Amino acid sequence: MAGTITTLTICRTCRPEGAAADAEPAGSVLVRAVARAATDAAAVEVRAIACQSACSRACSATVAAAGKFSYVIGNLVPEDAADLVAFAEAHAAAVDGVPPWRSRPERIRKNTIARVPPPGADHPLVERLEPAGDA
Amino acid sequence: MAGTITTLTICRTCRPEGAAADAEPAGSVLVRAVARAATDAAAVEVRAIACQSACSRACSATVAAAGKFSYVIGNLVPEDAADLVAFAEAHAAAVDGVPPWRSRPERIRKNTIARVPPPGADHPLVERLEPAGDA
């Protein structure tokens, strides 16, 4: 599934701890920065969301595509926009959604909160279990 | 998409901070507990994975289904197995994968690390953005 579109979703309501309550949410600023950075990224579709439940690590973003691993990234600032788009492009290019280590910008590597395996798909990292009794 | 199967994936290599390096990973214990707890959960498929990149909040689990929001849960212990399965069942029953608040066990609510919107799908929480120039 290399070459598919990756959805890059930015939380537009994220406010890092200590941010002024009456200021524009940092997440909204990040949304604009990412939209600009993604102008030429044909494989990346940018979306904004009202809360990704990753509030303690604001600002947050996710990358996802059908049948692939998805990723959650936190502690983001607007200056990370280009790195985020580069990571989303690497995700789009990776058959299973797991970009090679060298394709992950350092800021993204260091602030990866989690990766979610694709539902119902076989993958070398994942082992399917049968529900067990008391065995 | 209510009534579909939800994949509940447990990290089997998770070791909470300070855990003995020569002991069985707590994640492996959690895998067994969840497999037992899911015996009668027809809508839940249990899988184990080698690392979900949520190591700082071990033990971790994810729930996912095609076209739905997925969730990442952390700080789990084997005693959370039944709550995890109940949450996965609520996820399977929710059309968009967002279980009603009352269907989320308290331990799961309090330890939700992130939710990932479904790629390429429309949802009231999500706004699609067009790549922008310098506008």
Automatic annotation (TrEMBL), chains A, B:
Native organism: Chelatococcus sambhunathii
InterPro entries, A to Z: DUF1636
Pfam families named among the record's database cross-references: DUF1636
Protein name: DUF1636 domain-containing protein
Chain segments carrying region Disordered: 109-135
Top-rank taxon: Bacteria
Biased composition (Basic and acidic residues): 124-135
